[in-house]
Description:
The complex is a heterodimer. Chain A has three domains: 4-76, Beta Barrel (Thrombin, subunit H), CATH 2.40.10; 79-355, Rossmann fold, CATH 3.40.50.12240; 365-473, no CATH class. Helices cover 33% and strands 23% of the residues of chain A. Chain A has helices at 133-136, 157-167, 188-200, 224-238, 250-263, 277-285, 314-322, 331-335, 352-355, 365-389, 396-413, 423-434, 447-453, 455-458, 467-472; strands at 4-6, 9-13, 16-20, 29-34, 40-49, 52-57, 69-76, 78-81, 89-91, 107-110, 115-116, 121-122, 127-129, 141-142, 149-151, 169-170, 178-186, 207-213, 242-248, 289-291, 297-305, 325-328, 348-349. In chain A, the strands form four sheets. In chain A, strands 9, 12, 15, 17, 18, 19, 20, 21, 22 and 23 form a ten-stranded mixed β-sheet that branches. A seven-stranded antiparallel β-sheet of chain A has the order 1-7-4-5-6-3-2, with no helix packed on it. In chain A, strand 2 (9-13) and strand 3 form a beta hairpin. Chain B is of the alpha+beta class. Chain B folds into four domains: 2-65, Elongation Factor Tu (Ef-tu), domain 3; 110-181, CATH 2.40.50.100; 192-425, P-loop containing nucleotide triphosphate hydrolases (Rossmann fold); 439-578, Bovine Mitochondrial F1-atpase, Atp Synthase Beta Chain, Chain D, domain 3 (Bovine Mitochondrial F1-ATPase, ATP Synthase Beta Chain, Chain D, domain3, Orthogonal Bundle), CATH 1.10.1140.10. Chain B is built from 16 helices and 27 strands. In chain B, the strands form five sheets. In chain B, strands 8, 19, 20, 21, 22, 23, 24, 25, 26 and 27 form a ten-stranded mixed β-sheet that branches. In chain B, helix 11 (442-466) crosses helix 12 (473-490), helix 12 (473-490) packs antiparallel against helix 13 (504-526) and helix 15 (539-545) packs antiparallel against helix 16. Chain B is globular and about 95 Å long. Chain B starts with a strand and ends with a helix. At the A-B interface, strand 5, strand 11, strand 12, helix 6 and helix 7 of A face strand 1, helix 1, strand 9, helix 4 and helix 6 of B. Strand 11 of chain A pairs antiparallel with strand 9 (96-97) of chain B. The site of magnesium ion has 4 residues of chain B, from helix 3.
Amino acid sequence: MSLREYRTINRISGPLLFVEKTSPVGYGELVEIELENGERRRGQVLDTSEEVVVVQVFEGTSGIDTGARVRFIGETLRLPVSEEMLGRVLSGLGEPLDGGPEVMPDERLDITGAAINPYARDTPKEFIQTGISAIDGMNTLVRGQKLPIFSASGLPHNDIALQIARQSKVLGEEEEFAVVFAAMGITNEEAQYFMEDFRRTGALSRAVVFLNLAEDPAIERLVTPRMALTTAEYLAFEYDMQVLVILTDMTNYCEALREVSSAREEVPGRRGYPGYLYTDLATIYERAGRIRGRKGSITQFPILTMPGDDMTHPVPDLTGYITEGQIVLSRELHMRGIYPPINVLMSLSRLMNLGIGEGRTREEHRALADQLYSAYAEGIDMRGLVAIVGKEALTGRDLKYLEFSYEFENKFVNQGREEEREIEETLDIGWDLLAMLPEDELTRLERWQIEKYHPKYRDKEDHPNDGDKADEVRPNRG
Amino acid sequence: MISRVSGPLVVIKGLNPKMYNVIQIGEEKLIGEVVGIEGKKCMVQVYEDTYGIKPGEPAWDTGKPLSVELGPGLIGNIYDGIQRPLPEIREEIGDFVRRGVMAPGLDRTTKWHFVPLSKRGDKVSGGTIIGEVREGSVNHKILVPPGEKPGVITEIEEGEYKVEEPVCLLEDGREITMYHVWPVRRPRPFLERLSPEVPLITGQRILDFLFPVAKGGTAAIPGGFGTGKTVTQQTLAKWCDAEVVIYVGCGERGNEMADVLEEFPKLEDPRTGRPLMERTVLIANTSNMPVAAREASVYTGMTIAEYFRDMGYSVALMADSTSRWAEAMREISSRLEEMPGEEGYPAYLGARLAEFYERAGRVRTLSGDEGSVTVIGAVSPPGGDMSEPVTQNTLRIVKVFWALDYNLAYRRHFPAINWLKSYSLYEDTLRKWFEDRFGEDWTNLRKWTKHVLQQEAELREIVQLVGPEALPPDQRVLLEVARLIRLAFLQQNAFHPVDTYYPPEKQIEYIRAIKRYEEMAYEALRSGVPVERILSVKGKEKLIRVKYEENFVEELRKIIGEMTEEFESLIEEWKYKVE
Ligand SMILES: Nc1ncnc2c1ncn2[C@@H]1O[C@H](COP(=O)(O)OP(=O)(O)O)[C@@H](O)[C@H]1O
Ligand SMILES: [Mg+2]
C-alpha cells in the first residue's frame, strides 16, 4: 500500500475536492482527508488525470479548506466482514454505532462488488409466503427476487416491509431469513421503528443494520447500500444463508447521486438526475439472486418514495426497469383505511410464474390470479363510468363487477398488520369473491378448475376435505 | 501512456491509433476501443471496470478493430458483449465476472466433423461455401472469408478438425480454416438486397394476423417497464420460424438470461423437433456489466447474425433493449464532453440507430443463396413516454411498430400490444403469401377485425358518456364481437403450453369462428331476437376458452355447431313470437 499525502486542493465544489499535482492516483481509490483541526473524513476518486484528481467526500466538504491534507490509500473502499456482524448496528460507512467493538474481519471486501456471471445464475423459484394476500396471491415473491415497494410520503411502507420481514418463510423449511437492513436518509424516528420491531421479534440477532439517517452526510448514502449488499453476499454465498435485504429510502440515495453529478457539472438527464442513473442503480439491484451450486440467496426489498406520488419520476421508473416487479402503494386505498394499501393492478411480480402452481402453491394459482386481475380491472372501469353516468346506466352484469371491486379491496387486499394468511386461505378468499360473478364470465379459468375450487361446487362436495379425489377425476389439462 | 481515467473512459497520449482500434490498457491489459481522437490524445472506452487504473500506466495499440470470431462453436453458446464465452469465464474465475480474463470466442480444442461441399479444382472466392459441420440443429456452413481473393481449391478433405486447422488449401498456398474474424462495426458484404416478401411467422396471433413482420424486416417493440417487451422477445425467440436466433440481452436483467438458458434447452423447436437452444446464440451484457461492452454487444450480435445469413439462413436478431445501448452511447458521449443533443443523447443517435437497423435485410449472399436478418428491437422509453428520442428515432427507421400499453398490462391483457396504435408496413407485401397458404379471406378478415376494433374504440367513448344500456342493439352486438376478438383472439398467454404458439392455420380458423358468431348474431337481431338474448348465448364463452384446447380445431368446430343450433332455435322461437 502506497500512502501519498498532498496539500494541493485547488477547488472545492459541493461534495467534491479537486486536488492537483499528485503522483498517479488510481480511479476509484479510497481517500482520507485530514482537516486542520485534526478531523478525518473519507472519500473516493471519481476522475483521475495527470493534472487533477476529483475526490468525492462522503461526509461532505463543509469545514474543509484548501489547507486540508489529502491522503490516497492505494486501494478501493473495503468493508471488513465476518459472520460476527449478525446482530450489529453500524453506520452508513460501516463503523459500529452500538457501542460494540470493531468488527474483527475474516475478510475485507471491495464494496463495489462484481457482477454475477449470468451463466452462473440459478433462476429463483422457491415461493416465499409473506402471509400478505395481495402479495402471495397476486404478486408472488420468490427467493432471490428483487421486489421494490413504490411508496409515497405518509404511506405505511415501513409496516409492510416489517411485516414481510417478520412473516416471510419458505414453506417446508425451518430456516429463518437473515436480514440486512440499510437506512439511507430516513428519520431517526423511522429508524427506531425498525429497530424496535427487530428487537421485539428477536430478529436483531440475525440482522445486520447499517444506518445513515437524515442528519448524516448525504454522500455517505452512496456507500451504504453497497456496504449492505457486500455483507449480504458474504452471508449468502460464504455462509449459505437466506438473506433478505431491505434498502430504504432509495430516493434519498438517488438524490445524493444527483448532488455529486451536478457538482461535476455533468449534462443532466431527466429531472436533473445523471444519465447513468440506470446503470448505477443496476449495480445495486442486480446484487440479488441465486447462484448455481450455492445454497444461499439474496432477496431484495428496496423501498422508495415517489416524489409527488408520480410513478413516472426517474427513481421509480428506472427502478421498475431493473427490478423484478414492484409493489405499488396507493394513497386512495390508504385513505379508505385499507391495509396494506397495495394497488394490485399496478403491482407486478415478474418471477411469480416460476414460484407458483402445483407443488409450490396450488395448481390453479396462475389462472385464479389472472381472473381476479381482470375482474378487478373491469370493476375499476365501472367506477369510472359510475362517476360520469351514475349507477342507473349500468347493466346488471356491470353492477356485479362494481361490487366485486370493493369486496376485493375489503376482503382480499385488506388484512391485519399482524395477520398472517396461509396461501391456501388467500386463494380461497379469491374464489369466494369470484363467486359473486356469473360463472361463465370466468373465462380465465378452465372448466375443471371451476369445478374443483369454485364455492358453488366446493360446497356441494360430499366429502369436503377430499382433495385427492378431485384430483383423480381431473380431466386432461392440455 | 494513460493520462486520464474517468469511469469507462480512458484518455491515452502518445499512441497514434486509428478510430475504433482495440487498445490494451494498463498493466492488466484491459481492453478498450478508440472512440475519439483529439490531437495527440485518444479516447478509449474500456470494456471492463477501471478501478485502480492510474495515469502513467502504459497502453498498447493492437492495430485491429474490435472483431468477433465466426465459426463452429457459436451455436448454443452464451457470450458477453465482446464475445467472451461466459461458461469458460465462470470455469476460469468463478461465479462473479471480474476483469482481466481473456477467452477466445470459439473453443480451440473441440473437433468438428467437416464435410466438404466443394471439391478439388473448384474456383472459390470470398463468401463461397466450401463445406459444413453439424452444430446443434444447424448445418454450419464453412465460408471462404468475405474479402478473400478468388482462388482454386487444390486440397479439401472430410475429417475431424479443430477451428484453427486448415480444411482447405488453395492453389496459391492460402489455407482456409473453419473460422475467420470480422470487425463488428463493419457490415458484412452481400451481392444484392432482395425485397422482403416472406413473413417471419411468430405464432403470435396479434402479430402474424394484424401486424406481421417480414423476414429481413425490422420491428420495434417499445413499452414502459412491465408491459411485456422481454416476454414478447423471448416468445419470438422460441417460436419464430427463423433458422437461427441471436438473442442480445443488452443492459437488462441477469435472471432473464438465466431463464433463457434454463428453458431453451428443454423446449422443442416445432419445426425441427430439436431443442431450441440448438439454433440459438445468446449475448448477455447485463445492466451491471461494463457499460462500454454493452454498447458493443448489439454489434457483436449483429455480426454473428450476418454471418449465419451468409450461409443462406433466415436469422432473427432480438435486442433487449436498444434503449440501454443508446444510454451507453450517451454515457460515453457525455464523458467525451461531446455536444449533447436531445435529452443528453449524442447528435449521432439517429444515425447510429439507422446504421444498425440498416444491417437487417433479405439478401442474395456472396455464395448466391438467399439469406435474411430480421431485427426486432425492444425500446424502453422513460416513463413509458414514446415521444422520447430513442423511440422516435427508432420509429423513423423500422417498418413495424408493436406499441405496448401500460393500461392493457395493468389489466393483464397480454400481449399488451395496443391494436389501435401499432402498425406494419409489410401488410401489403405479405398479403399474397398469406392468402396463398391460408385462404383468400385472410386479408378481408384482417380488415374486418381491425374495423371492428376501431369501431369499438369509438363506441366506448360514447359509452363513457351515456352508459352501455343506452346504445342501440346493433352497436351492443358490435361491442360484444369486439370483446370476443380481444379476449379470445388477441389475448395470448405466453406461459400456457398450447396458447403460447398458434400457427397461422389455427389463427385464421379462430378468427373465422368469431366472424361466424358476428354473422349469426346480426341475423338473429334482424329476425327480431332481443339483444339481451343474443348476448347471453352460451357458446360465446366457450369460444374464449377453446384456445387452451390441445385439439383446438375439432373443439372449435363443435362449438360453432352448438352455437349455430342455439342461434337457430332462438330465431325459430322469435319468428313465432314476432308473428
Ligand atoms: N404474452 C404474455 N403472456 C402472459 N404474461 C405476460 C405476457 N407478456 C407479459 N406478461 C407478463 O408481464 C410481465 C412483464 O413482462 P416483461 O416482458 O418482463 O416486461 P418488460 O420487459 O416490458 O419490462 C411478465 O412477467 C409476465 O407476467
Ligand atoms: Mg424487459
